[in-house]
Write a structure and sequence with these properties.
This protein is α/β, with parallel strands linked by helices. It contains six helices and five strands.
Length: 166
């Protein structure tokens, strides 16, 4: 059975509402698709208050407080950057959990040789519990964005203890 991304977002929303937890997002390569998916879920205002789309480095610094040294030393597509993106979104949105995503959806990869389809995820569960993962997706830009969106939402649901049915 292949459950839709919207159905996964509905399930995540119900879980967050039951636990009285607010969620925020910090997106780069997904360009707001995660937030849009959450907004299509039931009762969105009860679990999702704010999302941030920071596509370039200057926006990541200005809006989310990502350190310029992090971007210089590790690039925006790194564990260090998504960790700071997640923490910055949490601080600015006043949420308890967060999703941060940065990557190269395509058609090109990074100047450092990182291939298109590479996406870093950070799931902020608490200040001492930020889970990061790098995944490589195949396909054209829109396919990578769609896969990354689903992965981010399903990943948070899984981490909160309720595995998403695939």
């Amino acid at each position: 059975m292949n459950i839709s991304t919207t159905a996964i977002a509905n399930e995540l929303g119900r879980l967050l509402i039951a636990r009285k937890i607010m969620l925020t997002t910090a997106e780069s390569c997904t360009g707001g698709h995660i937030a849009a998916t959450l907004c299509a879920a039931e009762d969105t205002p009860l679990f999702f208050g704010a999302g941030f789309v920071t596509f370039n480095d200057a926006a990541k610094e200005r809006v989310l407080g990502v350190h310029s040294v992090t971007l210089k030393n590790h690039t925006a597509v790194s564990q260090e950057a998504v960790t700071e993106m997640a923490a910055g979104a949490i601080a600015r949105a006043g949420a308890q959990v967060g999703i941060a995503v940065s990557g190269y959806a395509g058609p090109e990869g990074g100047e450092d040789g990182t291939p298109a389809g590479t996406v870093w995820f950070a799931w902020y569960l608490s200040s001492s519990d930020i889970i990061c993962e790098c995944v490589h997706f195949e396909g054209e830009c829109e396919t990578v964005i769609s896969q990354a969106t689903r992965y981010a939402v399903a990943g948070l649901l899984d981490l909160l203890g309720k595995p998403a049915r695939t």
